[in-house]
Design brief:
The longest helix is centred in the last third of the chain and has 20 residues, at 189-208. By secondary structure, the chain is α/β, with parallel strands linked by helices. The protein has eight helices and 15 strands. The model has no long low-confidence stretch (mean pLDDT 94). The strands form three sheets. It has a six-stranded mixed sheet with strand order 2-3-1-4-11-5. A five-stranded mixed sheet has the order 8-7-9-6-10. Bound molecules: phosphoribosyl ATP and zinc ion (ZN). The site of zinc ion has 3 residues, from loops.
Length: 283
């Protein structure tokens, strides 16, 4: 049995649970308790506040965790980062009132900066040789300058909308973050084996992201040209159609390249092109 800590409610909860679900691990979400056992995988889920996850994993009360990298950096917890999860992207940035001119890191000399991330901020100040006062506040950091509590803030930014609506501008992006899967450093052999099994599934789910299954009818004499357009995982599948001189070609394409490839395939005579959702990809 392996124990994974995820955020109980907040920005990362739904996607963390969705990832486990897509990996075929069923957890009774209706009865979201403190601790829940998966139905068909040797795993239990511990629901926590995100701030507590790195420490709980480092301390061994949970074996794994899904948490923002920003929390791992702030707590300095001694854990292994096993995977980047591809969701929860954000950055920890310094922001100042928009009317002020930013002159570089020395701008912050002698200033007061409000933040919930004092340790990451302290590291940045030290590495830039700047002495500033850190005012730790746990919520609504963005209102600190207008409320006269601080000259600047150091906070999580994603779209930047919150900064703008509080009359602030981002001047330094200090740390890029996304949700990460973390693990305790000394898992025993049995837990390590369960982790490998879990990673195999998670990788298949993540690998399918951004990919589509594409199939089409194609004149048989155009197959070699089509193969150049669609390299696929090993090579596209070609099947004979009942109609003389035609075949059906199947492949996997990146969604970002989909329209470009479709245009090129149409240009060489592809017809009846179908694009399908891809659920899992096992390499
Ligand atoms: O209750 P608990 O302690 O578990 O949750 P929390 O309130 O501390 O965290 P939560 O749920 O807000 O965020 C969890 C994690 O999501 C963070 O630790 C980050 O890793 C990640 N994340 C991603 C974000 C954002 N994007 C984000 N935009 N966390 C917070 N924000 C805030 C931001 O600070 C701003 O106030 O959301 C607001 C909107 O941001 P803009 O820039 O899009 O306007
Ligand atoms: Zn929190």
């Amino acid at each position: 049995m392996i124990r994974i800590a995820i955020q109980s409610k907040g920005r990362l909860s739904e996607e963390s649970l969705a990832l486990l679900r897509e990996a075929g691990i069923k957890i009774d979400e209706l009865k979201r308790k403190f601790l829940a056992r998966a139905a068909d995988f040797p795993l239990e889920v511990l629901y926590l506040r995100d701030d507590d996850i790195p420490g709980v994993v480092a301390g061994g009360s949970a074996d794994l965790g899904i948490v923002g990298y920003n929390e791992v950096a702030e707590t300095g917890a001694d854990v292994k980062i096993v995977r980047k999860m591809g969701f929860g992207a954000c950055r920890l940035s310094l922001a100042i009132p928009k009317a002020q001119e930013y002159t570089g890191p020395s701008f912050f000399e002698g200033k007061t900066i409000a933040t919930s991330y004092p340790n990451v901020l302290e590291g940045w100040l030290a590495s830039n040789g700047v002495k500033a006062k850190i005012q730790k506040i746990m919520g609504s950091v963005e209102i600190a300058p207008a409320a006269g509590l601080a000259d600047a803030i150091f906070d999580i930014v994603s779209s930047g909308g919150t900064l703008v609506s509080n009359g602030l501008k981002e001047v330094e992006a200090v740390l890029q973050s996304e949700a990460v899967l973390i693990a305790a450093k000394d898992l025993d052999a049995e837990k390590q084996a369960i982790l490998e099994k879990l990673l195999f599934r998670i990788d298949a789910v993540m690998e399918s992201g951004g990919k589509k299954y594409i199939l089409m009818n194609l004149p048989t004499d155009k197959v070699s040209e089509a193969v150049k357009i669609l390299p696929a995982m090993r090579s596209p599948t070609v099947m004979q159609l009942a109609a003389e001189g035609w075949c059906s070609l199947h492949s996997v394409v990146l969604e970002s390249e989909l329209w470009d490839k479709i245009e090129r395939l149409k240009a060489i005579g592809a017809e009846g092109i179908l694009v399908l959702h891809l659920d899992k990809v096992i390499d």
